[in-house]
Fold each of these.
Amino acid sequence: MQVFNLGRANIYHVSVVTTLSCVFVVMLVAMGMLHSLYFSPLPYPDSERIVKLEYPMFDENGNESSEAFNYPSLMHLYEHKPAAMEQLAMVHYAEQLLTSDAGAPQVESAYVSPQWFSIFDMPLAMGRVITEPVDESSPVAVLSFQAWQNHFNSDPNILNKTLRLDEREFTIVGVAAERFYEPNLKKLTHNTAVWLPWQYNLTSEEAKPYWWNRYALNLMVGKLATGIEHEQVSLSLSNE
């Protein structure tokens, strides 16, 4: 891929996503090399191939000061998926008011690209997941099973009804199954209430072009192509 580094090394880290109800991300000591801790398999197909990608920044002393993506580099990597990656998915985490509820409770939202549902193999209680390509999706929503119970009274006719987050409305198209195990990429106690299309994420249009803004809640996960080692991906991404 092209280098947009503004004088800094263009280096990506690839970290293994692990379980025990959390994500253990071990920062790399040698640039482009992977170190990972294995605890127990994730409850997803081909879990050993699921990784979290990072975009580290280093200060003048060579110490890592950030692992977060800036918006242009995140989009560039997603749009130019390396052959070593079978799938890439973006997620933007937020906390918003569910203003369609009379009490307007604050809920956890996640704006995702469609590959997110495939990588984590989300089972459904009803409806469908978000399948439209990035930038082509209508404002739709997939509820967690808990949100469907707690905020919508387990309404069996919830599909095609409308919810409102802050000032934007979304049409409900699916409800995750109760057994779905969410990867805790944001924090240990994170429970997403609603998944939404990436294109509606809360990054401001004014901020999206800037390379110097790093967003800790804009993340990328992926699935390695069959037969590819983590070290190969780290090195290939860092050299592009």
Amino acid sequence: MTDATDSDRIRSLLNKERAARDLGLWDEMAECFGPDSRITASWFEGTGDEFVEASKRRRGAGEPTNFHEIGNIAVTINGNRGLAEAPMTIIARGRFGGLDVDIVSHNRIYARVERSKTSSAWHVVAYEPVYMSEILIPVFPNHTAPSTDSLGPLIDRPYRWLAYMLEQSGVTVDPELPGIDRPDLVRDLKAQQAAWLNDAA
């Protein structure tokens, strides 16, 4: 098996996981995660299985459908371990202060993947985004965006609008997630990724 084949399978894995979540294909989404996977997002931290169940609950509770667009996926492989990094855009519709708005959030995803010991399949074992920037767009252009004064330490973070939407639904958002405005956290994340990859058996 060539590295090129493995790289293509890893790219397909990341695309499959995001598409499955967008479409509510929960069994297919669950197939993408390893048994000890760890997932971090603006609204969630836990295992891959817990992430699937939490996503299912949010959708069942009326969460607006979010869509994810993934750009070119860079893959680095060492034995049965790999790292995948890609730009990703989250497009989410919310309702703030009685106004319909679209949030366009740009970030980079960093995923650790491992090849199964019993097959050629790859699975996500860790997943974390780095937030870059975002735009809030009123669906009706003559409307004014709502105030975010209540966000406190999140007000200047590059995921403040996502945080605002989540806070409105009762979700507490970590103000210390990696982002372009926190290069120290991004350096730590990349160092942890590299150490994990280099420790491949």
Amino acid sequence: MDNVLEVGRIAWENLIDLGLFFFIALFIAASVDMLYLDVVARRSFKKHGLLGILFTTVLGAFSPFCSFTVIPLIRKLLRGGVPLSAVMAFWIASPAMDPPIFALTAKEIGLPLATARLLGAVILAMSAGIIILLLEKRGQFKDVLRPVKTEADRVVGTVKTAQVAAPAAAAGTTGSTGILVLDTPAPGEAAATSCEPGACGTSEEDDEDDGAPWWPQAKASLKSRRNWRITGRNFVRDTFSLGKWLVFACVFEGIIRVYVPDSAITTVLGGKGWLAIPLAVLISIPLYLNGVGAIPIVGGLLAKGMAQGAAVSFLLAGSITTIPAMVAVRSVVNNKVFAFYLAFGMLGSMLLGAVAQLIL
């Protein structure tokens, strides 16, 4: 009974710690929706592919989000049509490194390993983004979101004049900028109940962009009461649909910390052979807790004789392949994207760990 209570205590503390960032991510995602920031991001990243990947990698490395709390923002960007290449770079870099994690890593296990962790996270994120960008140019990764059965509301904004000429008189008003603000459902919107926007494919019509200025769209959206209602409903729905996985992740972390003895970790990872690197990647799946919690674990393993290359692999792979992170990712993207995310994270971490083993 004491162990169960300890699991509950750990889970509750983690929920308190992560809850703030989770709701910050939900708020940012809602702001992206209301202010059409996804339109700005989509246009920018489609125009500047490599620079977009570099920007999101650096942004991710300085953001405070872990692999789970970043999910609401990731889903909103993908639903808004932002290329997976740019999103994936941010997605991988964000939980792997941020300034507090770098400082704590340097203090606890040394500046060389902290630097290796930082460079490894940047290289891993950039490489994933570039590979996906090349695949996107070949027509891959057009459909990335996981299909859902619940109704998905979308904020209504600008529509091309040719598309709204008929319904304009009955459905809303058109300003001098050519923006149509709808206060009733747009034609065909009520039928969009089987998938989230973008989850079941992207038609040519969805990909069209009339090039309308962003800020007038945002102002029109902020004045639409219907858009505020839709954003509120989406916020509540995302809180419950993603929040249940956050609770699961926190409970699972508590179970690991209570029931898995430290001696088991030391036995598996306490060697200096090359086999320690793939073992470190595999063992990070159940044992990596979070970016900060992994630091004392690695410190103890290094004291027991763990190879530094294996330590780098553990720190890099853990942020990607830990079970709570995989649960979060799987709740958003389809099997193809999830398989790439998992395989690239594991293989890339092994390779970077091997390089670190030669250098450090």
